[in-house]
Amino acid sequence: MSFDSLQRGACLITKPACFCALLFIFSFLSFAQTPVPTFTTSQPNQSLTQTSLQVTAAQPTTPATVLRLEDLEQMALKSNPTLAQAEASIRAAEGRRVQAGLMPNPIVGYAGEELAFRAIGEKSEHLGFIEQTIPLGGKLRKSRAIVAQEKLQSEQEATAQRQRILNGVRMLFYRALGAQQLVEVRTELAKLARDAVKVTGELFNVGQADRPDVAQIRIEAERADLDLIMAENEQAQVWLELAAVVGNPSLKPARLVGELEKNLPVLEQQSLLQQLLSSSPEIKRAQTGVERARAVISRAKAEVTPDLFLRGGFGYNRELLEKEIPNARRTGPEAQVEVGLRIPLWNRNQGGIAAATAELDIAEREVQRVELLLRTRFAAVYRSYLNALRVASQYEKQIVPQAQSAYDTYLKNFRGMAAAYPQVLIAQRTLFQVRADYVTALINTWQSAVLLQGYLLNGALDAPGGMTMEGGNPANADDRE
Hints:
By secondary structure, the protein is α+β, with helices and mostly antiparallel strands. The protein has helices spanning about 5-10, 15-30, 70-80, 80-100, 120-125, 140-205, 210-245, 270-280, 280-300, 350-415, 420-455, and strands at about 40, 50-55, 65, 105-115, 125-135, 255, 310-320, 330-340.
């Protein structure tokens, strides 16, 4: 269709209508060359999140490397330094357990008496001895029991740290997957906006568009470019965080294989809470702390039993048996034996027993504290999960289809010259923003589900041992708020 024919047809309507019609047709001729993003809505018997954005335009070049969630998990379990630290803590605890059960080393020595240097060969006594302390009351066994409970605590810490790493990788994976989709959405929107600027510029050159029209379209395009830049920056940030958590800072961005919109977990509150309170590594560690405190009390009470002191030796006495008798013989070989016990007369370890009893009370209260804290965190995370799931469901069933319908209607009317092109732009912008909000809701749903199914553990780069509820690292979603 030529421009002259358009002008002849425009003479049948008013001047403003003529301008709009010309703008619509020129815009449509250019816009028709641009693929239109469409949403496909799932059937009623399909899963909750079958709605997806199908972009018919050429997709960005797929990186040669693709990564799945399982690949990233294996990387993290192999290279994340905190897991190696936790495993080393178990070995250290086992070493302390072995050491706690060892007998004290004996003392071997020499003793000399009556060493008169003017007549050292006449009256000196020389003795070699061996001395040994034997702990009684089962002290070694009970000391070993204390450290055995500490080893169990280290094992629970390692289990918790492993879960933290997996949770961190999974949450970052869904963030990265969402960022990947948002970059695609923003790229398409920016392309459509640039095409609109080109069409409007051509109309302005032939006098069929005003400067305000050109300015409005350019503003729209600049906003789309800024949104794209921010989406790309978000994607780059997530990749840096993901590379740190998997223990490979040189990890290059790759195409992620996964589905945000399919198989969203449906979680039941009471069963999740019961599983959390019965199987959480933090609960188990606190319960192990109670057993350790009881072992400390048993060891403190055994301290009252005195240790057995043994000392024996063999030597030679050069003193004469009878100095008045001529040719008297020397005393000769001698043996020495000493046996002793420390009598618990004043010190019966009263203070140690009292301190150990207080530690038991602290440990029992710690179990209650951890349980209550987990209940509090569970309530907050489960609320976030329900909110995100409801938002995702509402976007899928209502908001996204309505935005798609409005966009299709405005586009159809524009093609029929019954609507202004700015209305199409507004509907298009709304559609893409709705899509972005939908992706964000899906990310929040997955991240909350990961925490709920992973015992609320996060902080993949926290040093193991503290069993903190909040992680101060990029894998902790709370730290980003």
